[in-house]
Design goal:
Largest sheet: 2 strands, antiparallel
Number of strands: 2
Shape: globular
Order of helices and strands: HHEEHHHHHHH
Radius of gyration: 24 Å
Distance between the termini: 53 Å
Helix content: 55-70%
Structural class: mainly alpha
Number of helices: 9
Length: 224
């Protein structure tokens, strides 16, 4: 009779290494980051509106906070930080530039720009995830301008025109006085985000562009 001990199913289960657990999202850290950037957007409203040049062009800094939220936290957390900020404004906290707050601001001429902040942060965050880990300056400037200027104006200008009864062309032309300040905020956002992602890689998970995935799938299909 063989002296070898038979292996029971329980022994096999005990000796078999368990599969590695999938990493769980650090919810506490995410919430802290969202809260910090909501606070940053609020803090950037404290100086109020500044003016530059003889044309007295008003500049507020809160759009800079929106751009930074998308570029540093990504699309989901960036948009959530803007959502949290807007929720605090809605309940009456005077967090908007000039000490404005309450539900009244959401029926005023600037409501389109506030909604545009959500889209802007999401667009910047979506693109930033695909620019990493390299985060080249030139494409980052283009995508940040697309989210931080074009996307916000795309909602803000038509809503402003509709509420105030201003012709759309005139409203669009009038909005160009904000461009110098917005372009400056785009540059600052990209430079800050470049330094942050270099110092703390992994804040945003790097992803592929959609067309790169499609090209890979097509290439694999042709070789099979």
């Amino acid at each position: 009779m063989s002296s070898a001990r038979s292996t029971s199913p329980s022994d096999t289960d005990a000796n078999t290494p368990l599969p590695a657990a999938r990493p769980r999202r650090n919810t506490a850290r995410d919430l802290a980051q969202i809260a910090v950037f909501a606070a940053l957007i609020a803090a950037l409203g404290l100086p109020g509106a500044l003016t530059i040049g003889g044309a007295a062009v008003p500049i507020t800094f809160q759009t800079l906070g929106v751009m930074l939220a998308g570029a540093i936290l990504g699309a989901r957390k960036g948009a959530l930080s803007v959502t949290l900020f807007l929720a605090l404004v809605a309940v009456g906290l005077p967090l908007l530039s000039g000490g404005r707050g309450g539900l009244g601001v959401f029926v005023g001429p600037s409501v389109g720009y506030l909604i545009g902040w959500l889209l802007g942060a999401a667009v910047i965050g979506w693109a930033t995830a695909r620019l990493l880990p390299r985060y080249a300056i030139a494409p980052a400037l283009g995508w940040t301008a697309l989210g931080g200027i074009v996307a916000i104006y795309l909602i803000g200008v038509p809503v402003f025109a509709a509420i105030t009864g201003t012709p759309l062309g005139a409203a669009l032309l009038g909005s160009t006085v904000f461009l110098p300040g917005d372009i400056l905020k785009v540059v600052v956002t990209v430079l800050v985000a470049k330094g942050v992602h270099r110092a703390w890689p992994g804040l945003i998970e790097s992803r592929q562009w959609p067309w790169a995935r499609r090209a890979g799938q097509t290439g694999s299909g042709e070789t099979e």
